[in-house]
UniProtKB/TrEMBL annotation:
Similarity remark: Belongs to the drug/metabolite transporter (DMT) superfamily. Small multidrug resistance (SMR) (TC 2.A.7.1) family. Gdx/SugE subfamily.
The encoding gene: sugE
Molecular function terms, GO-annotated: transmembrane transporter activity
Coiled-coil segments: none
GO terms for biological process, alphabetical: xenobiotic detoxification by transmembrane export across the plasma membrane
UniProt membrane topology term: Multi-pass membrane protein
UniProt xrefs under InterPro entries: EmrE-like (IPR037185), Small_drug/metabolite_transptr (IPR000390), Small_multidrug_res (IPR045324)
Species the sequence originates in: Kaustia mangrovi
Subcellular location: Cell membrane
Transmembrane segments: 33-50, 57-78, 84-103
Protein name: Guanidinium exporter
Cellular component terms per the entry's GO annotation: plasma membrane
Keyword list, A-Z: Cell membrane, Membrane, Transmembrane, Transmembrane helix, Transport
Keyword Cytoplasm (UniProt): no
Amino acid sequence: MAWVALFLAGLFEIGWAVGLKYTDGFTRPMPSVLTAIAMAASFFLLAVALRSLPLGTAYAIWTGIGTVGTVLLGIVIFGEETTVLRLACIGLIVTGLAGLKLITP
């Protein structure tokens, strides 16, 4: 259950990171409220996961999911640059996340 909570926390992290772009500096009410809700959900689910997962592993995976997801959505939604080197770096992050998952009970 902790891994599911951690994965969902990472998805909500992607949501609030992308949501920040839509808040226009927190001047747009609806995107701001939705971003704040995603932040709260992300932190809550991370706290739930930390009940049984090691802090270093959980935090690294939480931020890694957020990083990879945000970069990919930046490419897809906002037309950010896509290069082989950038995608290779994302692949290294994913490899590290998979490694942490495999070595953590």
